[in-house]
Protein backbone atom coordinates (compact mmCIF):
# COMPACT_ATOMS: atom_id res chain seq x y z
CA UNK A 1 0.00 0.00 0.00
CA UNK A 2 1.27 3.49 -0.79
CA UNK A 3 2.28 5.57 2.22
CA UNK A 4 1.65 9.10 0.94
CA UNK A 5 0.38 9.24 -2.63
CA UNK A 6 -2.76 7.58 -3.90
CA UNK A 7 -2.48 4.93 -6.64
CA UNK A 8 -3.98 7.49 -9.05
CA UNK A 9 -1.30 10.05 -8.12
CA UNK A 10 1.43 7.45 -8.67
CA UNK A 11 0.00 6.60 -12.09
CA UNK A 12 -0.10 10.30 -12.92
CA UNK A 13 3.57 10.62 -11.90
CA UNK A 14 4.51 7.80 -14.26
CA UNK A 15 2.56 9.46 -17.07
CA UNK A 16 3.58 13.10 -16.71
CA UNK A 17 7.02 12.67 -15.09
CA UNK A 18 6.45 14.84 -12.03
CA UNK A 19 4.53 14.31 -8.81
CA UNK A 20 1.80 16.02 -6.92
CA UNK A 21 2.92 18.14 -3.97
CA UNK A 22 4.33 16.56 -0.81
CA UNK A 23 3.45 18.66 2.24
CA UNK A 24 5.86 17.85 5.07
CA UNK A 25 7.12 21.00 6.85
CA UNK A 26 4.98 23.46 8.74
CA UNK A 27 5.36 27.18 7.94
CA UNK A 28 7.28 27.58 11.21
CA UNK A 29 9.67 24.74 10.31
CA UNK A 30 10.19 26.10 6.80
CA UNK A 31 10.93 29.55 8.21
CA UNK A 32 13.49 28.04 10.61
CA UNK A 33 15.17 26.31 7.65
CA UNK A 34 15.40 29.62 5.78
CA UNK A 35 16.84 31.33 8.85
CA UNK A 36 19.47 28.58 9.17
CA UNK A 37 20.54 29.05 5.55
CA UNK A 38 20.70 32.82 5.84
CA UNK A 39 22.51 32.68 9.17
CA UNK A 40 25.22 30.54 7.56
CA UNK A 41 25.47 32.94 4.61
CA UNK A 42 25.88 35.87 7.01
CA UNK A 43 28.39 34.18 9.31
CA UNK A 44 30.43 32.43 6.59
CA UNK A 45 30.30 34.65 3.49
CA UNK A 46 33.48 33.09 2.08
CA UNK A 47 32.02 29.58 2.29
CA UNK A 48 28.59 30.06 0.73
CA UNK A 49 29.73 27.81 -2.13
CA UNK A 50 29.56 24.83 0.21
CA UNK A 51 25.77 25.09 0.00
CA UNK A 52 26.01 24.19 -3.70
CA UNK A 53 26.81 20.50 -3.21
CA UNK A 54 26.01 18.03 -0.43
CA UNK A 55 25.17 20.56 2.32
CA UNK A 56 23.10 17.91 4.11
CA UNK A 57 26.41 16.33 5.17
CA UNK A 58 27.57 19.53 6.85
CA UNK A 59 24.56 20.41 8.99
CA UNK A 60 22.56 18.12 11.26
CA UNK A 61 19.42 20.20 10.87
CA UNK A 62 19.56 19.67 7.12
CA UNK A 63 20.31 15.97 7.45
CA UNK A 64 17.16 15.73 9.56
CA UNK A 65 15.16 17.70 6.97
CA UNK A 66 16.05 15.43 4.04
CA UNK A 67 15.28 12.40 6.24
CA UNK A 68 11.84 13.68 7.25
CA UNK A 69 9.56 10.61 7.40
CA UNK A 70 6.70 12.22 5.46
CA UNK A 71 9.05 13.27 2.66
CA UNK A 72 10.55 9.77 2.58
CA UNK A 73 7.09 8.20 2.50
CA UNK A 74 6.33 10.13 -0.67
CA UNK A 75 9.68 9.21 -2.20
CA UNK A 76 9.21 5.56 -1.25
CA UNK A 77 5.91 5.45 -3.12
CA UNK A 78 7.76 6.53 -6.28
CA UNK A 79 11.19 4.89 -5.97
CA UNK A 80 10.75 1.93 -3.62
CA UNK A 81 11.51 1.18 0.06
CA UNK A 82 15.30 1.55 -0.16
CA UNK A 83 16.37 5.13 -0.78
CA UNK A 84 19.71 6.81 -1.39
CA UNK A 85 20.40 10.53 -1.54
CA UNK A 86 23.21 11.13 -4.02
CA UNK A 87 23.18 14.92 -3.98
CA UNK A 88 21.69 17.99 -2.33
CA UNK A 89 22.10 21.56 -3.51
CA UNK A 90 20.69 24.92 -2.46
CA UNK A 91 19.69 27.21 -5.29
CA UNK A 92 19.05 30.82 -4.32
CA UNK A 93 17.59 33.42 -6.64
CA UNK A 94 17.89 36.89 -5.23
CA UNK A 95 15.38 39.51 -6.26
CA UNK A 96 16.46 41.61 -9.21
CA UNK A 97 19.64 39.65 -10.06
CA UNK A 98 18.24 38.11 -13.23
CA UNK A 99 19.51 34.61 -12.52
CA UNK A 100 17.66 31.70 -14.08
CA UNK A 101 18.00 28.00 -14.95
CA UNK A 102 18.17 27.22 -18.66
CA UNK A 103 15.99 24.51 -20.16
CA UNK A 104 17.75 21.21 -19.55
CA UNK A 105 17.58 17.55 -18.55
CA UNK A 106 19.53 16.53 -15.45
CA UNK A 107 20.37 13.20 -17.09
CA UNK A 108 22.63 14.93 -19.63
CA UNK A 109 25.56 15.42 -17.21
CA UNK A 110 24.54 13.07 -14.37
CA UNK A 111 24.42 9.63 -16.00
CA UNK A 112 22.61 7.07 -13.84
CA UNK A 113 21.24 3.72 -14.98
CA UNK A 114 18.33 3.24 -15.07
CA UNK A 115 17.05 6.46 -13.43
CA UNK A 116 16.99 8.81 -10.51
CA UNK A 117 14.48 11.33 -9.25
CA UNK A 118 14.94 14.92 -8.17
CA UNK A 119 12.98 16.38 -5.25
CA UNK A 120 12.55 20.15 -5.19
CA UNK A 121 12.05 21.30 -1.59
CA UNK A 122 10.70 24.83 -1.17
CA UNK A 123 12.50 26.70 1.62
CA UNK A 124 10.62 29.84 0.60
CA UNK A 125 7.41 30.08 -1.38
CA UNK A 126 8.01 29.32 -5.06
CA UNK A 127 5.75 31.27 -7.37
CA UNK A 128 5.55 32.29 -11.00
CA UNK A 129 6.62 35.76 -9.93
CA UNK A 130 9.79 34.67 -8.11
CA UNK A 131 10.91 32.12 -10.70
CA UNK A 132 9.44 28.74 -9.79
CA UNK A 133 10.35 25.65 -11.80
CA UNK A 134 8.59 24.96 -15.10
CA UNK A 135 8.35 21.42 -16.50
CA UNK A 136 7.36 19.93 -19.85
CA UNK A 137 4.93 17.13 -18.92
CA UNK A 138 5.73 13.79 -20.52
CA UNK A 139 9.16 14.88 -21.74
CA UNK A 140 10.78 12.23 -19.50
CA UNK A 141 9.59 9.63 -21.99
CA UNK A 142 11.45 11.28 -24.85
CA UNK A 143 15.12 11.11 -25.85
CA UNK A 144 18.08 12.77 -24.19
CA UNK A 145 18.29 16.06 -26.08
CA UNK A 146 21.47 17.89 -27.17
CA UNK A 147 22.82 20.46 -24.69
CA UNK A 148 25.52 23.09 -24.95
CA UNK A 149 27.67 24.63 -22.23
CA UNK A 150 27.44 28.43 -22.25
CA UNK A 151 29.39 31.31 -20.63
CA UNK A 152 26.18 32.89 -19.29
CA UNK A 153 26.88 33.66 -15.63
CA UNK A 154 23.19 34.34 -15.01
CA UNK A 155 22.41 30.70 -15.76
CA UNK A 156 22.58 28.90 -12.38
CA UNK A 157 23.27 25.44 -13.80
CA UNK A 158 26.53 23.55 -13.28
CA UNK A 159 27.80 24.41 -16.77
CA UNK A 160 25.32 27.20 -17.56
CA UNK A 161 23.98 24.65 -20.03
CA UNK A 162 20.86 24.75 -22.16
CA UNK A 163 19.06 22.49 -24.61
CA UNK A 164 19.75 23.36 -28.23
CA UNK A 165 16.80 21.44 -29.71
CA UNK A 166 13.55 23.25 -30.44
CA UNK A 167 11.06 22.97 -27.56
CA UNK A 168 7.31 23.54 -27.47
CA UNK A 169 7.40 25.83 -24.44
CA UNK A 170 3.70 26.60 -24.79
CA UNK A 171 3.17 23.25 -23.04
CA UNK A 172 5.41 24.15 -20.08
CA UNK A 173 3.70 24.04 -16.67
CA UNK A 174 4.78 26.09 -13.62
CA UNK A 175 5.00 24.16 -10.36
CA UNK A 176 4.24 26.58 -7.55
CA UNK A 177 5.04 25.50 -3.98
CA UNK A 178 4.46 26.93 -0.54
CA UNK A 179 7.45 26.97 1.81
CA UNK A 180 7.78 23.49 3.30
CA UNK A 181 6.35 21.67 0.29
CA UNK A 182 8.15 19.50 -2.26
CA UNK A 183 7.57 17.77 -5.55
CA UNK A 184 9.51 15.10 -7.42
CA UNK A 185 10.41 14.71 -11.08
CA UNK A 186 12.19 12.20 -13.31
CA UNK A 187 15.80 12.87 -14.30
CA UNK A 188 14.86 12.91 -17.99
CA UNK A 189 12.29 15.68 -17.47
CA UNK A 190 12.87 18.84 -19.50
CA UNK A 191 12.69 21.75 -17.05
CA UNK A 192 13.96 25.25 -16.35
CA UNK A 193 13.11 28.36 -14.36
CA UNK A 194 12.92 32.09 -15.19
CA UNK A 195 14.36 35.01 -13.19
CA UNK A 196 13.00 36.15 -9.85
CA UNK A 197 10.86 39.23 -10.50
CA UNK A 198 9.56 39.53 -6.94
CA UNK A 199 10.81 41.64 -4.03
CA UNK A 200 12.07 38.66 -1.99
CA UNK A 201 14.49 35.76 -2.39
CA UNK A 202 13.54 32.35 -3.73
CA UNK A 203 15.37 29.46 -2.04
CA UNK A 204 14.98 25.79 -2.91
CA UNK A 205 16.87 22.64 -1.99
CA UNK A 206 17.47 20.10 -4.75
CA UNK A 207 17.74 16.47 -3.67
CA UNK A 208 18.71 13.60 -5.99
CA UNK A 209 17.21 10.27 -4.91
CA UNK A 210 17.46 6.75 -6.30
CA UNK A 211 17.17 3.11 -5.21
CA UNK A 212 20.48 1.37 -4.40
CA UNK A 213 20.12 -0.82 -7.51
CA UNK A 214 20.86 2.27 -9.63
CA UNK A 215 24.40 2.72 -10.96
CA UNK A 216 26.22 5.86 -11.99
CA UNK A 217 27.93 5.40 -15.31
CA UNK A 218 31.64 6.08 -14.93
CA UNK A 219 33.27 6.45 -11.53
CA UNK A 220 31.51 5.48 -8.31
CA UNK A 221 29.43 8.18 -6.66
CA UNK A 222 28.91 8.93 -2.96
CA UNK A 223 25.49 8.64 -1.33
CA UNK A 224 23.64 8.83 1.97
CA UNK A 225 21.31 5.97 2.90
CA UNK A 226 17.98 7.60 3.76
CA UNK A 227 15.80 4.56 4.30
CA UNK A 228 16.02 0.78 4.07
CA UNK A 229 19.15 -1.16 3.11
CA UNK A 230 21.79 -1.10 0.39
CA UNK A 231 22.55 -4.60 -0.89
CA UNK A 232 24.21 -3.49 -4.14
CA UNK A 233 27.34 -1.51 -3.15
CA UNK A 234 27.02 0.74 -6.20
CA UNK A 235 27.83 3.86 -4.15
CA UNK A 236 30.32 4.96 -1.52
CA UNK A 237 28.02 5.33 1.48
CA UNK A 238 28.65 8.40 3.62
CA UNK A 239 28.37 7.72 7.34
CA UNK A 240 26.80 10.19 9.74
CA UNK A 241 29.28 12.96 10.63
CA UNK A 242 30.60 13.11 14.20
CA UNK A 243 30.12 16.88 14.39
CA UNK A 244 28.06 19.75 13.00
CA UNK A 245 30.01 21.80 10.42
CA UNK A 246 33.15 20.60 12.17
CA UNK A 247 36.32 18.87 10.90
CA UNK A 248 34.67 15.47 10.41
CA UNK A 249 31.63 16.85 8.59
CA UNK A 250 33.85 19.03 6.40
CA UNK A 251 36.06 16.05 5.53
CA UNK A 252 33.11 13.87 4.54
CA UNK A 253 31.59 16.76 2.61
CA UNK A 254 34.76 17.33 0.60
CA UNK A 255 35.05 13.62 -0.19
CA UNK A 256 31.44 13.53 -1.44
CA UNK A 257 31.94 16.67 -3.56
CA UNK A 258 35.19 15.41 -5.09
CA UNK A 259 33.52 12.11 -5.92
CA UNK A 260 30.58 13.86 -7.55
CA UNK A 261 32.56 16.20 -9.80
CA UNK A 262 34.63 13.40 -11.37
CA UNK A 263 31.74 12.89 -13.79
CA UNK A 264 29.60 16.03 -13.64
CA UNK A 265 32.54 18.36 -14.34
CA UNK A 266 34.34 16.05 -16.76
CA UNK A 267 35.50 17.92 -19.87
CA UNK A 268 35.07 21.42 -18.42
CA UNK A 269 37.48 23.84 -16.78
CA UNK A 270 34.81 24.93 -14.31
CA UNK A 271 35.25 24.23 -10.61
CA UNK A 272 32.41 23.36 -8.28
CA UNK A 273 31.65 26.27 -5.91
CA UNK A 274 31.67 23.71 -3.08
CA UNK A 275 35.37 23.03 -3.66
CA UNK A 276 36.67 26.58 -4.08
Would you kindly provide a written description of the structure presented here, covering whatever features stand out?
- This protein has 276 residues and is α+β, with helices and mostly antiparallel strands.
- The protein is built from 6 helices and 15 strands.
- It has helices at 7-16, 27-43, 55-58, 60-66, 69-79, 247-264; strands spanning 22-23, 83-93, 101-104, 112-113, 117-122, 133-135, 147-148, 162-163, 173-175, 181-186, 191-193, 202-210, 215-216, 221-227, 235-237.
- It has a 7-stranded mixed beta sheet with strand order 1-10-5-12-2-14-15. The chain has a 4-stranded antiparallel beta sheet with strand order 3-11-6-9, with no helix packed on it.
- It is globular, with a radius of gyration of 17 Å.
- The N and C termini lie far apart (45 Å).
- The model has no long low-confidence stretch (mean pLDDT 97).
Percent range of helical residues = 10-25%
- Record the strand order, biggest sheet: 1-10-5-12-2-14-15
Oligomer: single chain
How many helix segments? Answer: 6
- Rg from Cα: 17 Å
The N- to C-terminal Cα distance equals: 45 Å
Dominant shape: globular
- How would you sum up the major sheet? 7 strands, mixed
* CATH homology superfamily: q2cbj1_9rhob like domain
Q: In total, how many beta strands?
A: 15
Instruction: Please give the CATH architecture.
Output: Sandwich
Structural class: alpha+beta
What proportion of the residues form beta strands (DSSP E)?
A: 15-25%
How many domains is the backbone divided into? 1
Amino acid sequence: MPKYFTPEQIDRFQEQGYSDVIRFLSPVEARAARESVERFEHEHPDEIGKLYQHPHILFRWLGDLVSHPVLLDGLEDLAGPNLLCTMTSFRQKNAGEGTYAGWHQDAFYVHYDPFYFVAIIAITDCTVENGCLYVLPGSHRGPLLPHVETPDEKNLLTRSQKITAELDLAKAVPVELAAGEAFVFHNMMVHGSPPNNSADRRIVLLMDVCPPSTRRLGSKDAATLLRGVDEFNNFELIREPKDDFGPDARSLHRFACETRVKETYKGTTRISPALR
